Please model this.
Amino acid sequence: MKKVTVFFLVIALCLMMSVGCKKKDDTSSGATNTPIDITHWYWADNPDYSAKMQQIVKDFNENNDQNIKVTAQEYPWDGGGYSETLFTAAMGGGGPDTAAWKLTSTPLFKANNLLANLDGYINDWTDKEDIEENLYNVMRNASGTDNIYVMPWNTQVLYVYYRPSMFKAVNIAVPTTYDEFLEACRKLTRDTDKNGKTDVYGFGMRGAKGGQEPWGSFIYGRGGDFTNFSTPQAIAGMQDFINLYKNGYVPPTAPTDGFNEIIANFKSGKTAMTIHHIGSSSGMVEALGEDVDAFPFPKGTSQWTSMGDTENVIFEACDNKDAAFEWVAYLATGKGQEEWCKTTGNVPVSKRVQAMPEFQNNKFMKVSIQGAPSAGIFPILDTTTEWINTIWPNTTAAALAGQKTAEQAMADLQKGLYGS
Amino acid sequence: MRNKKAGFWPYLLIMPALLVVMAVVFIPALNAVLMSFQSYDLRRPSEIGFIGADNYIKVMRDSLFWSSLWRTLLWVLFGVGFQFVFGFCLALLLNRPFRGRGLARSVSLIPWVTPGVLIGLMWRWIYDGSYGVLNDILLKLNLIDESIPFLARVSTVFPAVVVTIIWQGIPFFALMLLAGLQGVPGELYEAADIDGANVFQKFIQITVPSLQNTIYVTTLLRIIWVANSVDVIFNMTGGGPAYASQTLSVYIFNKANALNLGYSSAMSIILTILLLLVAIPYLKNLFRNQEN
Model:
């Protein structure tokens, strides 16, 4: 009996060893032959950017030596609706492995434990020093912890696009102060065909979602800030914003004008100035040639412009985080960074790419860099997304329509963001 | 004994369907009711828990809820009302013999078969204050001096979205009433002709009573659908500007989008109760008419 037991034990041991060896063989063969699939979500502002992202993915898939196969799926930005779609998908278990990102979404996703902690990956990363330490700190602050959950990708500093020919027509120079900017809005509003109706508006105001970014410059222009919207300075900034609409210096469609409308109006000559970042510069040049230039939003009592940020994240549910990090690292400092920033004109986060001549000799890049010292982001709270998507556009529209005074509107905005 | 067996089998046979209905209708509905009594805000997952009737109390104190509810009432009243009137006219027209009637019947269905999202986007461009075709036509006809930003003005945005929903719903009424009209016996009209009835009298005395049940069912369905409709308004205006086109269903959707699921569930339950208050007497009346 004892012999039989020992016999079976030996057989079992042999079987276990052979299974173990086989398994090891399988794993090693899988690393080389079986592709590691990574699904990536992103948005693109125009078809050229879509094509570029797909090209970057193709290059990465062909050239990485770890057999990583990225599939990039495009979703519309939709004034921030992208983040909501991403959240719904991630909560429902159908989210991607990695995704393009905006910092404002970090608290929500972090609170629901959806994001992977990148500290370990970044500390071991050879390209870590290629990105300014300050950017990592911004990423840490956004999560409200000492950890990094967001991989830097590129930034965009908002500035003012203008039509030099229109400035020449009304004989004004580029504004250097906030008051001069307001005055320029007035002077550039014209009835060019003398039919008694305005056909060129001084400023292309964005009243729909996303309009809070240029609006913030007006608040700071009068000395207000985002810690308290109810100060006299912040209210005065809001009043300037309202006056532009009330006095007819912006198109009457301004309360609902979003990205597409302000860009279309500027390109068609309906507006003489508008605020956006370098991402739209190639389209502007294509449409207007030399008749488009830019300047940083001028300083008033204070100065602020929005730093648009775009990052990438890895989801906690991703099965192959090492491979996912290879991919987001490629976008941050590799060829992906170079290609994407060259096409979109966005400000690179990689110091190596920033130093390239293409970026050093670009006039829009120069204005972005001039505006960088006063560039900042909105307070990142768990209320920020709703505030941006619903509360700001509707409250501002009510103020523009005369349903609320500047003071009432600012009180509502304060309540919407901070609760009181 | 045989009767007992027969009594058991029908229940067993409908059991699978009942289970499916339970899974896809009752459980989510029950979940919504439970959620409405919870602080269920995904932005603050640590605070999720039962809070009694707090959500309902907050809803009652929310001025946006009341303005959205009032707008829902107008939305249904004007939306369904005009859909019915124009749909009835179209059905009467399509019931008459004329060349190309088949084609006209098919074409008239286009608004109904077009997805709501597409309708929203399409009408957003039609109304566009800078490049919209409606402004272009009105300007060329010298009816206006300058473009009207229909969707950017608080005073015009709601009528604009109501017109869109009317346009979308006309074919539904036309189709259903046309089917009803074809079932009205021709002899009734012949008898009325012999009695000397005019067109209006025939319409009131024969057509309308014959279509009564169809009218009841179609209007009830449309009231429920239009009250719950989100796609058209959301894609045209998102409920803005200044919440001027926000109906209750759009408000619910926006709140759910902002991840405050407890609050949006409470509003959904209230909307459901309000619709039941309309639907139950409506159905009772319908059944009473059928019995008579």
